[in-house]
Design goal:
single chain; alpha+beta; ten-stranded antiparallel sheet; 4 helices
Length: about 270
């Protein structure tokens, strides 16, 4: 196992990119929360916003916000007392989705190619929101990358992931095996909060209901969410720059966490 191309610590200056043509990303998401605009629930009010993005996101659906609760029967979805509206704008190939609600905008993809493309799409969405709906204050900016490996790789995690993240996965449990276990840690990186979750999950189980489970394989996930809750005027260009910074924080932690063998497994030239 080699760590030649990994940074020595999870935090510090941005590190050199190693493109992964077959990156095991289950989800990449950026969300910006803002002070509520009640009129966003009305189709007429968002018409000009839709027109500005319609060429890239021609499919539109309207949803009511749901609450997810964990009860005796597992995860249950119920509408809140006063349901809000979420407008979902999807590209023709259904690889990208832009979500607009009364208090947030989000861009997400399960078909991530490279960082520049993702941030270009985010900047375009933020500019359209600023130009047409003019939010007042930003209340949270967050960027999230969720990597997921499956199958044979989960039986050889010590070849791919730093021992600091393996804990029980790398422990001799005698006649037992670890069925599932997810660790959560919170870090303060200057003005950025990083929430990191990692661990093993059995067949058909996810640690977050926003991603689809794999019905036939065990998985190991590394879920990194960088954010700030500092309030300030909504400025599309400044928010886009913050999102880039958060992406750099996430990427350095990711590169520290995985081995050269991991990078090569997914097409990295190292």
């Amino acid at each position: 196992m080699s760590w030649t191309h990994s940074p020595p610590t999870p935090f510090g200056d941005p590190c050199e990119r190693v493109p992964l043509p077959d990156a095991p990303l289950a989800l990449v998401l950026a969300q910006v929360r803002f002070t509520p605009i009640v009129s966003i629930a009305n189709a007429d009010y968002i018409a000009s916003f839709q027109e500005s993005i319609r060429q890239n996101y021609p499919i539109l659906t309207r949803e009511l916000q749901q609450q997810i609760q964990l009860g005796p029967q597992g995860l249950q979805t119920t509408p809140p007392p006063t349901p809000g509206v979420i407008w979902r704008f999807v590209d023709q190939d259904q690889n990208w989705r832009l979500s607009l609600a009364q208090d947030f905008i989000a861009v997400e993809t399960s078909n991530y190619t490279h960082r520049d493309d993702f941030h270009k799409r985010l900047a375009q969405a933020l500019t359209a929101l600023e130009d047409h709906l003019r939010p007042g204050l930003t209340t949270r900016i967050g960027v999230r990358y969720m990597d997921r490996i499956a199958g044979d790789m989960t039986t050889r995690l010590e070849d791919y992931v730093r021992p600091e993240l393996l804990s029980l996965e790398a422990t001799d449990l005698g006649s037992a095996r670890l069925d599932s276990g997810v660790t959560e840690a919170h870090f303060a990186v200057d003005d950025v909060a990083l929430k990191a979750r990692w661990g093993s999950l059995p067949i058909g189980v996810v640690h977050d209901p926003i991603v689809q489970p794999l019905a036939d394989q065990r998985t190991w996930v590394l879920d990194l969410d960088a954010s700030t809750t500092d309030a300030g005027p909504f400025d599309a260009s400044a928010i886009a720059e913050s999102a880039k910074k958060f992406g750099e924080v996430i990427y350095r932690f990711f590169r520290w966490a995985v081995s050269d063998e991991f990078l090569r497994e997914f097409g990295g030239d190292v």
